[in-house]
């Protein structure tokens, strides 16, 4: 989301806007928005209705989370571009900006994904969250 924060002005110049959707409760989303200084809203889908309807719900993780994804919806409400990504490879905000600046042409190939490097701080947070959520390794039978 920080990448979209950095390009937000350019995205707005391309006559587009950004909104994130999270399954977290409103207070968690508000804290993330404040911590990352995001100029766009994080919409709360605590009931997971949106992520299920859009096919980006991962029921296997921590009681159900959203799969990282980017959707470009035009002013008529038509999805012009969709990229359902993974935790380790995602479409870059720069590629989305380029798509918007090009006038949202019909995409015929999947854009490249950026491989994300697991940084020590992210690894620490992942382990901390797993312990905090009391997630355990599956029992071997």
Describe this structure in words.
This protein has about 140 residues and is α+β, with helices and mostly antiparallel strands. The chain is about 35% helix and about 20% strand. It has helices at about 1-15, 25-35, 50-55, 95-100, 120-130, and strands at about 20, 40-45, 55-60, 65, 70-75, 80-85, 90, 115. It has a two-stranded parallel sheet with strand order 1-2. The chain has a two-stranded antiparallel sheet with strand order 3-4. The protein is globular and about 40 Å long. About 10% of the residues are buried. The model is unreliable at about 110-120 and about 130-140 (pLDDT under 50).
Write the layout of secondary structure elements.
Elements: H1 2-13, E1 20-22, H2 26-35, E2 42-44, H3 49-53, E3 57-58, E4 65-66, E5 69-73, E6 79-84, E7 89-91, H4 93-101, E8 113-115, H5 120-132
Parallel strand pairs: 1-2
Antiparallel strand pairs: 3-4, 5-6, 7-8
Helix pairs in contact: 1-4
Strand sequence of the main sheet, in spatial order? 1-2
Distance between the termini: 40 Å
Low-pLDDT residue spans: 112-120, 132-141
Mean pLDDT: 79
Strand-residue proportion: 15-25%
Q: Which fold name is given in CATH as the topology?
A: Glutaredoxin
- Percentage of residues assigned to helices: 25-40%
What oligomeric state is this?
single chain
Order of helical and strand elements: HEHEHEEEEEHEH
CATH hierarchy class name: Alpha Beta
CATH-defined superfamily: Glutaredoxin
Per CATH, the architecture is 3-Layer(aba) Sandwich
Major pleated sheet: 2 strands, parallel
The total of beta strands comes to 8
């Amino acid at each position: 989301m920080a990448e979209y924060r950095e390009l937000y002005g350019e995205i707005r110049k391309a006559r587009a806007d950004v909104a994130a959707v999270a399954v977290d409760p409103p207070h968690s989303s508000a804290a993330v928005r404040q911590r990352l200084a995001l100029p766009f809203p994080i919409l709360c889908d605590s009931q997971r209705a949106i992520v299920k309807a859009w096919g980006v719900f991962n029921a296997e993780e921590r009681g159900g989370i959203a799969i990282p994804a980017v959707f470009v919806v035009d002013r008529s409400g038509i999805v012009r571009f969709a990229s359902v990504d993974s935790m380790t490879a995602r479409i870059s905000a720069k590629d989305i900006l380029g798509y918007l600046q090009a006038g949202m042409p019909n995409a015929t190939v999947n854009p490249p994904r950026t491989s994300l490097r697991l940084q020590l701080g992210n690894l620490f947070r992942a382990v901390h969250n797993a312990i905090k959520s009391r997630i355990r390794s599956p029992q071997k039978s």
